[in-house]
Design brief:
By secondary structure, the protein is an alpha/beta fold. Among the domains are: 212 residues, Sandwich (Immunoglobulin-like), CATH 2.60.40.3800; 207 residues, Rossmann fold (3-Layer(aba) Sandwich). 23% of the residues lie in helices and 27% in strands. It has 14 helices and 30 strands. The strands form eight sheets. Strands 1, 2, 3, 4, 7 and 14 form a six-stranded mixed beta sheet that branches. A six-stranded mixed beta sheet has the order 22-21-23-27-28-30, sandwiched between helices. Strands 5-6-11-10 form a four-stranded antiparallel beta sheet. The longest helix is centred in the middle third of the chain and has 16 residues. The radius of gyration is 24 Å and the shape is globular. The relative contact order is 0.12. The N terminus is likely disordered.
Length: 601
């Protein structure tokens, strides 16, 4: 059972599971920790943020509202809260300390242990509990704070720390809870940040990313950074493409000009000729940084497949595997640092000073020909001008025999964030065989969001696993779709279906066909889950896509994905599986396209 980002969602899930357990004896004992977060900025630029946790018992897990369950194989499952503390402008951290309330102690609590993460392409491996930990009465995890890093979003500096309000002594089954933890951050004057522009929209955007938004009022002095390579002007929306595709994309730029403050198409060869860098991806990123500072660019469409606009491959390792070339378009939008702090030209390693938040929201039009570009442009314009139905489509195919663990929880998590006035359509294998005909009908039903669960590979994913027979959906099946007048936003936990550096993955096909999707957010490599919870890891990123749209109001596709990922920065900083998931999800689609608003000239 999962630790939900919102405890009301957890209660909703419990309700679903109780329905599944009719006639069975079930004990429900969970502790939910809800929070209030006041903060103080002192006169010497130090910051104090107080986190208060209240308790409720419902099942055999401990849940923090907006928190994450730490799952380490064989070790107790304990929750932590990923604190995000905005630092005052132009300061740097000198010390971080905590204070806490008197503890509340409870005994007789048996906490389950974690299992290894599993890819959607493997069979889960089960392990027993760690006898050294469970045979000891040393408090676990034995720390109340884990200091991670300082990240930046458009020049706003954010300190990320994990808070552990619950300590567990396994041998005596004793839980110690600290209801209040105060984080005290001492700072000193530091250098000004070159990416702080002072834009009002930037100030509004940071509020949803931090726990102490009032500190935004300390940001008053923008940096002055103008590139001599760029003409003066304001271009919020930029398309990078080839000379051959420029005339086709010009129609999209003209359309966007009615809704953003300036559009610009930039030829990729001009960038290569005018910008320095170790390779072409670095030259493109250096240009985008200049456009952000000089033109006020917020949105960048990479107008072409990898033969037109290059990709950057990240080096990612997890226990038992690695990907030395994981395509990660976030490289072009996250503009702090180099992603190669050690200079070994293996980008995105743990020690490389990873920047997690996009200053410029990036998406890719994975097209190679004029005809493909024309289909993409026509779809984006028609979609933005079309009415949006209050419909979401949720899907489940089994991940293992007998649906263990239950793959429906991924859909149910996403449903929790979907407003009550939306129609929530379920196409679940548990309700019977999902055929290709069923799939075509679902796509033609005008859903705004279409969530998929199943196994996959570069050009295929499963839509039914075993009930009534296995059914697979291939690239070659996409042209059989008939939804040519409206296209959903499509996301999936399936492995490798977003491997766009290969020749036309499934994510690309959905976007390039005249039916299919308006945008896809899918995995470049393996998706991940836990044998205790099908929705952990990859499924959690899908859940926060729905949260970002319907709760946070981030309806532009690029900002939606950035917001969804932002909930997992602390997890990605401290856990390789989350880092893998964070890197591998790319947006195939226009980053500026709003998915709730019907635009009109």
């Amino acid at each position: 059972m999962k630790t939900f980002l919102n405890y009301r969602g957890f209660l909703s899930q419990i309700s679903q599971e109780v329905k599944e357990l009719k006639g069975k004896k079930a004990m429900l004992l969970v502790m939910i920790l809800a929070m209030s977060i006041p903060s103080v900025i002192s006169s010497n630029n130090s910051v104090s943020v107080e986190y208060t946790f209240d308790t409720i018992f419902i099942n055999n897990h401990w849940v923090i509202e907006n928190g994450i369950l730490q799952e380490i194989a064989g070790e107790p499952l304990v929750p932590y809260y990923p604190a995000r503390i905005l630092l005052p402008q132009d300061t740097e951290v000198t010390d971080v300390t905590i204070s806490h309330s008197s503890p509340i102690i409870q005994q007789g609590i048996d906490i389950q242990w974690g299992q290894p993460p599993c890819t959607f392409s493997d069979t889960p491996v089960k392990v027993g509990r760690n006898s050294g930990i469970y045979g000891s009465d040393n408090p676990y995890p034995g720390k109340m704070i884990d200091i991670l890093s300082v990240q930046s979003f458009r020049g706003f500096q954010i300190l990320y720390v994990n808070l552990f309000p619950l300590q567990y002594q396994p041998k005596s089954q004793t839980v110690t809870l600290y209801e209040t933890i105060t984080v005290n951050v001492k700072t000193q004057r530091g250098p000004g940040h070159t990416l702080y522009r002072g834009h009002s929209a930037d100030r509004e955007a940071i509020i949803d990313l931090v726990d102490n938004p009032e500190t935004v009022n300390t940001y008053t002095t923008p940096a002055q950074s103008v590139s001599p390579l760029l003409e003066s002007g304001t271009y919020e929306y930029v398309i990078i493409t080839s000379d051959a595709l420029t005339p086709t994309f010009q129609a999209l730029a003209n359309h966007k000009a009615a809704f953003v403050n300036g559009t610009k198409i930039v030829d990729i060869q001009w960038i290569y000729s005018n910008y320095t860098g170790l390779d072409n991806p670095m030259r493109v990123r250096n240009f985008i940084t200049d456009a952000y500072n000089t033109w006020g660019t917020n949105w960048c469409l990479l107008g072409g497949d990898v033969d037109v606009v290059p990709y950057r491959g990240f080096y990612v390792r997890v226990q038992g595997g690695r990907d030395p070339d994981m395509a990660a378009d976030m490289y072009f939008g996250c503009l702090d640092g180099t992603f190669d702090a050690d200079g070994d030209q293996r980008y995105g390693e743990e020690r490389d000073g990873i920047d997690w938040l996009e200053e410029v929201f990036v998406g890719r039009a994975p097209v190679e020909t004029v005809d493909e570009a024309q289909v993409f442009v026509n779809k984006v314009i028609a979609y933005e001008l079309a009415p949006k139905q209050k419909i979401c489509q949720f899907h489940q195919s089994r991940l293992a025999r007998d649906n263990t663990p239950d793959a429906r929880v991924i859909a149910w998590d996403c449903e929790y964030w979907t407003p009550s006035d939306y129609e929530k359509r379920e196409l679940f294998e548990e309700n019977g065989n999902v055929s290709k005909s069923d799939w075509i009908t679902a796509w033609n039903g005008k859903p705004l969001m279409f969530q998929h669960v199943g196994h996959g590979n570069t050009t295929v994913y499963g839509i039914c696993y075993e009930v009534g027979g296995e059914v697979a959906w291939y690239n070659a099946d996409v042209p059989s779709l008939i939804n040519t007048d409206f296209w959903p936003i499509h996301m999936s936990v399936a492995c490798i279906t977003g491997e766009f550096e290969a020749n036309d993955c499934l994510a690309e096909m959905y976007v390039k066909d005249d039916a299919g999707a308006i945008a896809t957010m899918m995995n470049d490599n393996y998706g991940w889950y836990s044998s205790l919870d099908a929705s952990k890891y990859s499924g959690e990123f899908l859940e926060t896509m729905f949260r970002a749209l319907f709760s946070d109001g981030k309806q532009n596709l690029g900002e939606l994905l950035n917001q969804a990922k932002s909930y997992w920065i602390s997890a990605a900083e401290s856990n390789g599986t989350y880092r893998w998931c964070y890197f591998e999800i790319n947006l195939m689609g226009d980053p500026e396209t709003p998915c709730l608003t019907q635009r009109a000239f």
